[in-house]
Design brief:
Blueprint: H1 27-48, H2 54-103, E1 106-110, H3 115-135, E2 141-146, E3 158-162, H4 172-183, E4 187-191, H5 212-222, E5 229-231, E6 258-260, E7 278-281
Parallel strand pairs: 1-2, 1-3, 3-4, 4-7
Antiparallel strand pairs: 5-6, 6-7
Helix pairs in contact: 1-2
């Protein structure tokens, strides 16, 4: 379907492009400093060798000043063009990525900063996408790696988030974005990748063995508005989405999968057809 421009907008609306903060180029001040040092060195050489009589120095300094001014003017123009080109390229790249995510359904995974973990996530979701294309009516495009600080999450129905020890804390803006995503129909699969993890709630059990993945998970979920969690019931929709599943094996087997507790606190029956916005496990599914 063709994308149509919005109509009926108020007269005082403002349009903004998707942009990122630009890098500050240190090339101009460093080159200016190098030029000053070069001129000072030339003057010192003239004085030491006896060729630096004052009239000669004045003439040579004037000539050097003209050359320096011309050089700096050219440098300023080149610097402005160099700064503008990457900014335009980054903006075009961001727009193309957003458009690709909006036009084709695909899975996403959170970039952790660890190359091995990120490569494993990409390969695992790419393999899952191929299997889904071959065995179901869902044919997802290639998965995208996501930075919750800068990337939009709304385009991805499922996001895989592997836990890495020492992961940097998220900003308030990123946490708010994640919270909105889960509350508006998106699902995040948090994978501690540590089969030693045992959960009684999203805050963990003080008597359970706590691995590095669970510790990272606690830091993230502790800053979010997360409902109570419960083990997946036998008749929940997640056990029969594509196959009838008795367990959820990954690299490890036998671990517990946790989802939102839904209506458990009210005493009502659990809504087995409700899709949880939050899934927590430890089987290292992307491996």
């Amino acid at each position: 379907a063709d994308l149509q421009p919005l109509t009926g907008l108020p007269a005082n609306y403002a349009a903004h492009d998707y942009t990122r903060s630009q890098e500050v180029s240190l090339l101009p001040p460093l080159l200016v400093l190098a030029l000053i040092v070069l001129l000072a060195d030339a003057v010192c050489i003239l004085v030491v060798t006896g060729r630096g009589r004052w009239p000669d120095l004045r003439r040579r300094s004037a000539a050097a000043s003209v050359v320096a001014v011309v050089f700096l003017i050219g440098l300023a123009g080149a610097s402005s063009r160099a700064d503008a080109a990457p900014a335009a390229a980054d903006s075009a790249s961001d727009d193309a990525r957003i458009l690709a995510a909006a036009l084709e359904t695909r899975l996403g995974y959170i970039l952790t900063g660890d190359r091995e973990t990120d490569a494993r996530s990409q390969a695992g979701l790419a393999g899952l996408s191929r299997v889904l294309s071959a065995r179901t009516a869902f044919a997802p495009a290639a998965p995208f790696g996501l930075d919750p600080e800068t990337d939009a999450l709304v385009f991805y129905p499922l996001i895989y988030w592997p836990m890495v020890a020492g992961q940097k804390p998220l900003s308030d803006g990123a946490l708010a974005k994640i919270d909105r995503y889960m509350k508006n129909g998106g699902t995040i699969l948090f994978d501690t990748r540590d089969q030693l993890t045992r959960f009684n709630s999203y805050r963990g059990n003080a008597g359970a063995v706590s691995g590095p993945g669970q510790q990272t998970l606690r830091q993230i979920l502790g800053a979010l508005d997360v409902p109570p969690l419960m083990p997946v019931p036998p008749e929940h929709v997640i056990t029969k989405s594509f196959y009838l599943l008795q367990g959820f094996p990954g690299r490890y087997v036998g671990g517990q999968l946790w989802i939102e507790a839904a209506a458990a606190e009210t005493g009502d029956n659990v809504n087995s057809e409700r899709v949880s916005g939050l899934i927590v496990g430890s089987a290292d599914w992307a491996a």
